[in-house]
Amino acid sequence: MVVLSQPAALDHLSDLIKACKPTSLFTGIPVVDLSDPEAKHHIVKACQDYGLFKLVNHGVPLDFMTTLEAQALKFFNLPQSEKEKAGPADPFGYGSKRIGPNGDVGWIEYILLNTNPDIISPKSLSIFKENPEIFRDAVLDYICAVKKMTFEVLELMVDGLGIEPRNVLSNLLREDKSDCCFRLNYYPPCPELQALSGRNLIGFGEHTDPQIISVLRSNNTSGLQISLKDGTWVSVPPDQNSFFINVGDCLQVMSNGRFKSVKHRVLADTTSSRISMIFFGGPPLSEKIAPLPSLMAEGEESLYKEFTWCEYKKSAYKSRLADYRLGLFEKS
Ligand code: GA4
Questions:
Q1: Choosing from 183, 274, 320, 325, which is the catalytic residue?
Q2: pLDDT tops 90 at residue 261
Q3: What is the ipTM of this complex?
Q4: Which residues line ligand 1 (CB under 6 A)?
Q5: Mutation choice for ligand 1 from 112, 202, 207, CB with most ligand atoms inside 8 A
Q6: Catalytic activity, per the record (predicted)?
Q7: At 1, is the pLDDT very low, low, confident or very high (cuts 50, 70, 90)?
Q8: From atom 14 of ligand 1, which residue's Cα is the shortest distance away?
Q9: Which domain range does residue 276 map to?
């Protein structure tokens, strides 16, 4: 038996080391141009085929992305003891390595915030402490612009599905009580990885997002992978000027399975750090999550038991990252 040695720095992180099949950069990720009159049809097709697409000509000022990236980097470069003053993430705040409450770990540091109703909670204030106005304003400008763009995408999606009213999805995020959150992820480079010969370091383990929709922007470091319908993992070529939008579990249910909540993960890199910012659009806690009635064909039955977002969220927080969370809510 060949025993592969492991660098000491990774000793306590053996859960993170996986032999993932080598993947090449996937060239088939659907690209949707928001200024294209046909965008609504491309969005629907991408959500059915992949549960993910890249959005270009999105209208969000690039300056909002780069300013926030710079502010976030400044935070992640602070001494550990400073960053920890904004932690632990329970679930909101600064977190390092630990993801969620049930033992999941990753080669990652992050800041998790709820964007509605109170981004300016005491914990968030301690995150922005070093540079209060600039960092906080960068987060607020970014989220505001990304939300507006997300509403547009959701309205086009509904149009593309041929149903009404066109704000049936966007209104769920627009509500005062919508339950949206925002995540800044920092994946430090890991030079020790070189010694792992063929094995990989998991930055963020495989999972689906529980919400309706997720909107991701990263720097130009690769690492994001998605699982295709046949189960193969492919790498998503990064593009710092675009967004990657994915279907969450709630949207899978609301489309009665037509759209797929895409399984994804992030692998760490030996030399480059990856930074990503993700807006998660969730409905109000009391919202019943069920297939949109106008979408159901005659005689079509829901594949899922009815549940509220609050029930789903509670159940998600009892699960491990890689669990198939929708399973509990499927009709047998
Ligand atoms: C995955 C999507 C979002 O990042 C997140 C994550 C959340 C967390 O990190 O607190 C969860 C994870 C995510 C799904 C299952 C539970 C909850 C960690 C975890 C083990 C913020 C979310 O909403 O669900």
A1: 274
A2: yes
A3: 0.99
A4: 91, 99-100, 102, 104, 112, 181, 183, 207, 209-210, 280, 316-317, 319, 321
A5: 207
A6: gibberellin A1 + 2-oxoglutarate + O2 = gibberellin A8 + succinate + CO2
A7: very low
A8: 321
A9: 18-318
Q: Is residue 164 part of a domain?
A: yes
Tell me the C-alpha distance between 11 and 5, whole Å. 10
Give nearest CA residue, ligand 1 atom 6: 100
Query: What does residue 198 show for φ and ψ, rounded to 5 degrees?
Result: 85, -10
For 48-103, the pLDDT digits (tens) are 999 999 999 999 999 999 999 999 999 999 999 989 988 888 888 899 999 999 99
CA pair distance 80, 301, nearest whole angstrom: 52
Mark whether 274 is an active-site residue.
yes
329, part of any domain:
no
In this prediction, residue 38 carries a pLDDT of 98
Specify the number of domains making up the chain.
1
φ, ψ at 316 (rounded to 5°): -60, -40
- Ligand 1 center to 310 CA (angstroms): 14
Task: Answer whether 0.90 is exceeded by the pTM.
Answer: yes
